[in-house]
Amino acid sequence: MGSEAQVQPAYWVADWPRYAMRALILLLFVASILKLSAQSFSPFLYFQF
After folding, report:
1. Which residue ranges traverse the bilayer (predicted)?
2. Can you tell me the distance from the alpha carbon of 36 to that of 31, in angstroms, rounded to the nearest whole number?
3. What share of the chain has pLDDT > 70, as a percent?
4. Sign of the dihedral through C-alpha 17, 22, 25, 26
C-alpha cells in the first residue's frame, strides 16, 4: 500500500508530456473549429481571435 502511494506521483510526473501534448492538440482543434464557425457565421467574431 505504501509503495503504491509513492509510485503513483512518479507515474504522473513521468507521463505529463503525453497529457500536455494531448491537451495542446485538443486546444488547437477546438480553436480551429471556433475560428471556422465564427468565420462562416460572423466575420466580427472571427477577427477577435
Report:
1. 19-38
2. 9
3. 51
4. negative
User: To the nearest 10°, the Cα dihedral for 19, 23, 25, 27?
Assistant: 180
* pLDDT at 24 (0 to 100): 95
Eight-class DSSP state of 35 = H
The total of structural domains in the chain comes to: 1
pTM of the model: 0.50
12 burial (CB, 10 Å; 0-12 / 13-18 / 19+) is: exposed
Range of the domain at 8: 2-46
Instruction: Collapse the DSSP code of 48 into the 3-class scheme (helix H, G, I; strand E, B; otherwise coil) and give the result.
Output: coil
